[in-house]
Amino acid sequence: MAKKTDLRPKIKLKSTAGTGFTYITTKSRRNTPDRLVVKKYDPRVRRHVDFREER
């Protein structure tokens, strides 16, 4: 039986604004095998920007 961490690994989402701000979250490998891009709030630039998955 697969472990919980195997199916939903922890990933870092890094801001595309160049501030270096990151969020840590989990994702499903089965549903999203590609790199994740999410629009989230970056407090250093005080606006919503795209956050891309780091590997």
TrEMBL record:
As recorded in UniProt, coiled-coil segments are none
**Which PROSITE patterns does this entry report, sorted A to Z?**
RIBOSOMAL_L33
Q: Which keywords does UniProt give here?
A: Ribonucleoprotein, Ribosomal protein
Looking at the record's lineage, which domain of life comes first?
A: Bacteria
Cellular compartments per GO CC: cytosolic large ribosomal subunit
What InterPro entries does its record include? Ribosomal_bL33, Ribosomal_bL33_CS, Ribosomal_bL33_sf, Ribosomal_zn-bd
| Stored Gene3D superfamilies | Ribosomal protein L33
Q: Which GO terms describe its molecular function?
A: structural constituent of ribosome
Q: Which GO terms describe its biological process?
A: translation
The record's listing under Pfam families reads: Ribosomal_L33
* NCBIfam families for this protein: PRK00595.1, rpmG_bact
**PANTHER family cross-referenced by the UniProt entry:** 54S RIBOSOMAL PROTEIN L39, MITOCHONDRIAL, LARGE RIBOSOMAL SUBUNIT PROTEIN BL33M
Q: Which family does it belong to?
A: Belongs to the bacterial ribosomal protein bL33 family.
Q: What is the protein's name according to its record? A: Large ribosomal subunit protein bL33
Which source organism? Bowdeniella nasicola
Q: Which gene encodes it?
A: rpmG
